[in-house]
Amino acid sequence: MRILITDSLSKEGIRKLSEEGGFQVKQALGLNEEELIKIIPEYEVLIVRSETRVTEKVIRAANKLKVIGRAGTGVDNIDVEAATKKGIIVMNTPGGNTISAAEHTISLILALSRNIPQAHASLREGKWERKKFMGSEVYGKTLGIIGLGRIGSEVAKRAQGLKMKVVAYDPFVSRERAEKLGVTLLELKKLLTQVDYLTIHTPLTERTRNLIGKTEFSLMKKEVRIVNCARGGIIDEEALYEALKTERIKGAALDVFEKGKPFDSPLLKLDSVILTPHLGASTQEAQKRVAIDIASQIIDFFKGGMIRNAVNVSMISPEAQKRLKPYLCLAEKIGELEAQLIEGHPKELEIIYAGELVNLEIAFLTAKVIRGFLKSFLREGEIINYVNALLLAKERGIKVVEVKNPEVEGFNGLISVKLTTDIQEKKIEGTVFGKEISRIVGINGYPLDFLPRGNFLISSNVDKPGVVGKIGTILGKFGVNIGGLQMGRKTRGSKNVSVYILDSFPPRQAIEELLKMEEILDARVVRL
Fold first, then answer.
1. pTM of the model
2. How many angstroms separate the CA atoms of 427 and 219, rounded?
3. How does the average pLDDT of the chain come out, rounded?
4. What DSSP character marks residue 78?
5. Where do the domains of the chain lie?
């Protein structure tokens, strides 16, 4: 079997493939699309990093290709859809840079505290400015971590070694999990008022885009220093510039940027800023680790039939997939909806499969529920499938319970997901109608019927005349049109749950105004 490597790869990985795997390995660097198309028909495996673009044209020419291996996390340089259609497995190595990213974060915290880059530059100019670069100790200071996943957890451990107090915001981690790490969980606003240092370790999603902006900076201490080694766009860089320029905050260190390369960013002009060119994973150890990881995965696949970290393989037989297909999308959408309606920190997901579902392979459906629930806080390239779903939930301190109930009234099959947090329970029910049409049919026991796709306002309010009109007026004030409405209630005149189908996503100010209505008990905006 022949393997083609088109980007730089640690020699340890290459040696493992050739010596342990017994494969024929060729490395050809710097190929353009046309050159790659000419030679790819000869190979069964293609290994890349971030430089090579594996386009649809390349995949179309790859007549023998069985596996594309990405020595790293992101697969945005690979046309995964085209590979999937052709039956080519795409693998990545999502955990290889965890330690490097955590260490780079700590390095930037210390560099900010002691003005190391600025002092070095000054000395090279022939200056001796000890007073100008007076620093601060991290000992005894409070570090706030947004995102307590793999990298965030490693940062916490290292910060504790420096005798820092660590607090975190992560709505998808249980308090029990945080306590085991010695970390106190706080709501975001409370965390921002307490920390001396803030570091971010979440993916960039619609939920986290501009998570830290003008409002958030206004809550922080003036001495706060901010680090971002996660993804550009989580911090509003325009608001960050203003906060630094006006000395609203002390300093910032960024390894990632809203625009890939920040050469035109005004942040470059500020002495209180440290910028590095996306060095989070750039260590010899990380590069060696991802090379060995991808080599091991390829050997395991061809020698033992084991698939690990595949981004496009469900590992389910065609017959089983056909039976499950109508419910797979529904399961993930229920998980997404639970995540966006969550209050408190999750402790347990109870998933009840009723009717025809009891005879299906529910492990795949459970994996989809967990994926939907966790996806907004997953790192780019981190995959959830039926093999690792329960493990990833367990890592976050979430207990998953599966229940089968052959009896169900009114539906052929029903998925009920009850999320228990430290302060509440929330139950969402869904089914499939007709030709694979997913529907949400209940929230907390209130009967509903809506397609889980689009923008929604989900409110709980007193069941009395005029409420819908008031809500429509407020939404209209902010230019948001209501495209449909579903309402469920248990008894007349008590309270109801209403689902407003919206043509656009309402701004934060609209929700704040809705919550001021005396009839509104709760209101959440959701995007599915």
1. 0.73
2. 34
3. 91
4. B
5. 2-95+284-304, 98-275, 314-448, 454-528
Residue 489 has pLDDT above 60, yes or no: yes
Q: Is 233 left (phi over 0), alpha (psi -120 to 50) or beta?
A: left
Instruction: Note whether 499 and 470 are within 8 A (CB).
Output: no
Please give the CATH architecture assigned to the domain spanning 2-95+284-304: 3-Layer(aba) Sandwich (3.40)
Q: What is the pLDDT of residues 187-199, one digit of tens each?
A: 999 999 999 999 9
DSSP string, 227-273: EE-S-TTSB-HHHHHHHHHTTSSSEEEESS-SSSS-TT-GGGG-TTE
pLDDT confidence band for 383 (50 / 70 / 90): low
The secondary structure of 86-104 as a DSSP string is TT-EEE--TTTTHHHHHHH
**3-class DSSP assignment, residue 490:** coil
pLDDT value of position 150: 87
Say if residue 412's pLDDT is above 80. Answer: yes
**Cα-based distances in Å from 231 to 74, 98, 203, 260:** 12, 14, 6, 10
According to CATH, the topology of domain 98-275 is Rossmann fold (3.40.50)
Domain 454-528, CATH number (from 3.90.660.10, 3.30.2170.10, 3.40.50.720, 3.30.70.260): 3.30.70.260
**Tokens 């990833």 belong to residue:** 392
Strands 437-443 and 446-450: antiparallel
Is the domain defined by 314-448 classed in CATH 3.30.1330.90? yes
CA distances from 316 to 330, 360, 362, 365 (A): 17, 12, 12, 12
- C-alpha–C-alpha distance, residues 61 and 384, integer Å: 30
Listed in order, strand segments (DSSP E) in 152-241 are 165-169, 184-185, 197-200, 225-228
Cα separation, 35 vs 30, in Å, equals 9
Q: Quote the CA–CA distance of 434 and 22 in Å, as a whole number.
A: 51
The answer to whether the CB of 342 falls within 8 A of the CB of 382 is: no
**Angle 362-374/318-341 helices, nearest 10 degrees?**
30
- Angle of helix 98-114 relative to helix 116-124, nearest 10 degrees? 60
Q: What is the pLDDT of residues 61-80, one digit of tens each?
A: 999 999 999 998 778 789 98
- pLDDT-derived band at 43 (thresholds 50, 70, 90) equals very high
Whether 91 contacts 309, CB under 8 Å: yes
Please report the beta strands in 28-181, taking only residues with DSSP state E, as ranges in sequence order: 45-48, 67-70, 89-91, 142-146, 165-169
